[in-house]
Amino acid sequence: MRVGILGGGQLGRMLALAGYPLGLRFRFLDPSPDASGGQLAGLVIAAYDDAAAIDRFVEGLDVATYEFENVPAETAEHLGRHVPVLPPREALDTAQDRLVEKECFRALDIPTAPFAAIDERSDLDPAIERIGLPAVLKTRRLGYDGKGQRVLQDLDDVQRAWSDLGGVPLILEGFIDFDREVSIIAVRGRDGRVAFYPLIENQHRQGILRLSTAPAPGTDERLQALAERHAARVLDALDYVGILAIEFFQTGDRLVANEMAPRVHNSGHWTIEGAETSQFENHLRAICGFPLGSTAPRGHSIMFNLIGAAPDVNAVLAIRGAHLHLYAKEPRPGRKIGHITIRADDAETAAERLEQLRQAIG
Amino acid sequence: MRVGILGGGQLGRMLALAGYPLGLRFRFLDPSPDASGGQLAGLVIAAYDDAAAIDRFVEGLDVATYEFENVPAETAEHLGRHVPVLPPREALDTAQDRLVEKECFRALDIPTAPFAAIDERSDLDPAIERIGLPAVLKTRRLGYDGKGQRVLQDLDDVQRAWSDLGGVPLILEGFIDFDREVSIIAVRGRDGRVAFYPLIENQHRQGILRLSTAPAPGTDERLQALAERHAARVLDALDYVGILAIEFFQTGDRLVANEMAPRVHNSGHWTIEGAETSQFENHLRAICGFPLGSTAPRGHSIMFNLIGAAPDVNAVLAIRGAHLHLYAKEPRPGRKIGHITIRADDAETAAERLEQLRQAIG
């Protein structure tokens, strides 16, 4: 089978690396000639709304998928006339818009922060009145890694936040005081079967994921079951096919859904070494209609994002159980250029190795 | 770094899949336009002795390696003038010729079957006299997967074997009555450090490897240590860099060396899922001068070669812990077109899953 991937960055690249052993072939569409997926599969270089390029891209494909949720609706529509596009259109529509996403969670009885649509300046004050401060003002579309959002600590912040973000549809979300952030990576096959990886504990800094630990320490079966119930509801409601990630705020034994990503997810990269089947392989198994693979963890994993600068490869590889993944991207401040997964048979050893890694690469 | 690989078959393909995450790039040289490595890296299509093509192939490479030991000496020589070629030339010279190989083992005090060079028909009778029957007559060069050899059970077989094989340099080897066949996968870095995977039990049929089980059941520490001592001697004597495989016949607590392969090896494919670092990654780490990765096993693995015909992918992927590796090769009788590694946390579960697999794919 031939799989087309919209986006030729690291997620597409890791999908292809996982899929070649299954006998799959790949083609990427990406506006950048430097998209590093192009090193290991055909790359159509064009804008995502270039209809002629999409016609070239789709030629001979059996299925298409994407590595980012901001696929233009017309592109998904156009592609979908020629080939199955999975995860399905409804998942894109939901995940692209923070308001629709929150409404989806609410309709499925999954707790969220209080929220309000902010279309005009005049919507803001009554929303603050209702939700309270602190709160977060976010663009409904195209935000990622902390971009397109402003924290409102008090009323003095309101006008500046509006000046920065106003003019596009916004959402105001109540601030959640949480113990920690966790995510679940779920997968649903074409036949409707589902599987879930163990909950992951995530640490962000400046809006960017830094560290994921899996299985999330101190997680009991009830919390895992709760996360799975929430994810299963979303999967079924959207008639979903592929990997879906949902990020939660955890407070005690309560999970509050923050956002979803209808694609393989940074917090699931540890599954390459740390699970029986990686999220990349399971995404491909799902969209190609194959049986899903086991999501059982293999030992304990800590994933460490490489942001902005390349590490000393020799120093990294000298750490026992350290698995390096470079994305062949030019380093730039704030840019994810790779990750390292530390795997060990027990959590203590994994933590020790992480400490060694931190000392080795500064 | 950019790595050139002579040969674009499954071994080269799996090297590239293991190396992209390390930030490496790849280029293959292969006479066949269908070489499946070409799906995931640049492919120079040319004969291995085509000097102009080798000049194109070598352009911009940092290091070159090979996926088969029958690289023509002139090619290695020519390449070596432009770029380091690893494993080193002496390893190729040794492994290409069964007589030189056996003499190497003997010089290093590693037990082998009794053997004799057979250059002419008149060498054969005195050799049989000395070595006894049964024995195996083999071409010194270019044999693989049981090709280029004849078993001599009694004197009646001698003339036919000579008619089939005579005319090129041959070797007569005494027949070893063994309990089982095992192999060791060893690796040596540019800095001379070595590491060893656990011994592997191999089952051949019609000269082709069918099944590898790792760690080899019932192996005690002494046998592992003995295999490592033998392998270490070869690695050091050849000033070796990269993965080296040595196949042994085991009788009781004795190991008799059969042959070596100066490359990643079919009996090491289980390391992709079954070891902390795969043989493919460790080969690349070695030739690129990076630190070696841990060779510790992760649970128990059984590797099952797919020979001649493609399996039902859905049936394979439905088996828990089954990892499919297809090589994108046209099925032909006797041709290795893929492998499946069954991994489990204990040997019994791995064996059960193998049984399920056998029932599923017939």
Kindly summarize this structure in a few lines:
The structure is a homodimer of 362-residue chains. With 362 residues, the first copy, chain A, is α+β, with helices and mostly antiparallel strands.
Describe what this molecule looks like in 3D.
Two copies of one chain form a homodimer. The first copy, chain A, is an alpha+beta fold. Helices cover 32% and strands 28% of the residues of chain A. Chain A has helices at residues 10-19, 51-58, 73-80, 89-95, 98-107, 121-131, 156-165, 221-237, 271-274, 279-288, 313-317, 347-361; strands at 2-6, 25-30, 42-45, 63-66, 115-118, 135-139, 149-152, 170-174, 180-188, 194-196, 200-205, 208-214, 242-251, 254-261, 300-307, 322-326, 336-344. In chain A, strands 9, 10, 11, 12, 13, 14, 15, 16 and 17 form a nine-stranded antiparallel β-sheet that branches. In chain A, strand 11 and strand 12 form a beta hairpin. In chain A, helix 1 (10-19) crosses helix 10. Chain A starts with a strand and ends with a helix. The model of chain A has no long low-confidence stretch (mean pLDDT 95). At the A-B interface, helix 1, helix 11 and strand 16 of A face helix 1, helix 11 and strand 16 of B.
Question: How are the elements arranged and paired?
Answer:
Two copies of one chain form a homodimer.
Chain A: E1 2-6, H1 10-19, E2 25-30, E3 42-45, H2 51-58, E4 63-66, H3 73-80, H4 89-95, H5 98-107, E5 115-118, H6 121-131, E6 135-139, E7 149-152, H7 156-165, E8 170-174, E9 180-188, E10 194-196, E11 200-205, E12 208-214, H8 221-237, E13 242-251, E14 254-261, H9 271-274, H10 279-288, E15 300-307, H11 313-317, E16 322-326, E17 336-344, H12 347-361
Parallel strand pairs in A: 1-2, 1-4, 2-3
Antiparallel strand pairs in A: 5-8, 6-7, 6-8, 9-10, 9-11, 9-13, 11-12, 12-15, 13-14, 15-17, 16-17
Helix pairs in contact in A: 1-10
